[in-house]
Amino acid sequence: MFDFPEILNIPLAEWVDNLMDWVLLHFGGFFDAIGKGLLKILLLLDNFFTWLPWPVVLLTVAVLAWRAMGRWWHGLIMSGLFFIIGCFGYWEMAMSTLAIVAAAVIISLVIGIPTGILMARSDAAETMIKPILDAMQTMPSFVYLIPALMLFGLGKVPAVFATIIYAIPPVIRLTNVGIRGVSKSVIEAAEAFGSSPNQILFNVQLPLAFPSIMVGVNQTTMMALAMVVIASMIGARTLGLEVLLAINRIEVGRGFEAGLCIVLLAIIIDRITHAFAAKQQQTREM
Question: Which CATH number fits domain 28-55+89-285: 1.10.3720.10, 1.10.10.410, 3.40.50.450, 2.160.10.10?
Fold first, then answer.
């Protein structure tokens, strides 16, 4: 009497399974082609990052940090943090991790910024896309691994696919917020000078929204990096794999070293991208 009536149960799991079967049957070749293209990009980035001599990487990090954060010793600290990763013996894995993060972030920006622009220019699009973004941000990240495995199999490609789904919402949201936050008086002034909608977008709204977009890039990058441990469960050879192996073998020291390397990477990326965003904000206010 007090049990929920079974007749009212919704077989959502069965519907989703049927949908995935239908997608694989009719679009399997399409996803295979996407997987091959994405794998080429990943291999290119991986080979590039692993080919770079470590002094060049450290110098590049130091210069970027110095230019973004404004002090030479900031660059020295950020470069020193990267040097510690190499001292732990995880340099090559750190480069592979950066390759996956870079691929996921690049694809996220290519998809996310135009989607954010669409949301900013259309209230109807914003109404439709917002619930999807809410679901993408609140859905447990492990769930993304299931369709990724079914569509692309094991390896780096499904890891990037799952990372994109998890990491793309911030850049979409903040692009939308940044463009909508541009003062109406500025837009009206541009219209008064005869600017077209596209000219207003590229010459007025996007430059003024750039600091907000950069914050979105920062958050997307950090969320992509947060997925490296989970992505290692489906075959991505990153620093996350070392954490996973340490958990399986109960090797506390190994897990701590690999986890600390991920933290150091996160600090370096966060400080540099956040500093660039803050610098753009200060330029805008001046």
Answer: 1.10.3720.10
